[in-house]
Amino acid sequence: MSLQYIIDAYNLINHPAFKPVFKSASNIQQSLADFIKFNRLSGSQNNSVVLVFDGYPPSSGDLPVGQELSCVFSRSKEADELIKKIVEDSASPRNIVVVSDDKEVCLISRFLHAQTCGVQEFIGAKKNKSAAIDGQEAAADFKLGFAKMQKINAELRKKWL
User: Domain of 54: which CATH number?
Assistant: First the structure.
């Protein structure tokens, strides 16, 4: 079973652990693609990566492409909205891993049966045990009770139905 990683690109770029692999990379999209490939962050070569950027593609048109990697731009929408739409339109959302630090994106992705992963976890920058404990506490805070889920569902019904 191959996975598809949908990455909120600017979350990853703005993370302190992101360091461009090659200084000569012509643009930030290529730098991010090189970082993911060099560090083998997507795991198996059968897994694919979709980098979702806010805004419009650069005018130079130099974007990293390949079978396992693609760049998508949200244009006039926010990247978060595009990520949600990609997961929603997927035929097999259980094979999707959404990489984002945005709680709303993660919540809706989980609701749609996709897996989620924070940027810190994706990069694997947790070097010591205290960082892992902090991450577990953050995950525990994120769990929702039944009443909270019902409230969120009611709000979503109002907006979408």
Answer: 3.40.50
Q: C-alpha dihedral over 145, 147, 150, 156, to 10 degrees?
A: -80
75 has which bridge partners? 55
Q: Which residues pair with 48 in a beta bridge?
A: 4
Whole-model pTM?
0.71
- Distance CA(36)–CA(20), nearest Å, equals 10
d(CA 107, CA 133): 21
Q: Considering the domain boundaries, does residue 159 fall inside one?
A: no
In the block, tokens 């945005």 appear at 102
Give domain status of residue 36, yes or no.
yes
- Chain centroid to Cα 81, Å, comes to 12
Q: What is the pLDDT of residues 101-126, one digit of tens each?
A: 999 999 999 999 999 999 999 988 54
Q: Report yes or no on 135 lying in a domain.
A: no
Q: Please give the residue range of the domain that contains residue 8.
A: 4-125
- Structural domain total, the chain: 1
* Count of beta carbons in the 10 Å neighbourhood of residue 74: 17
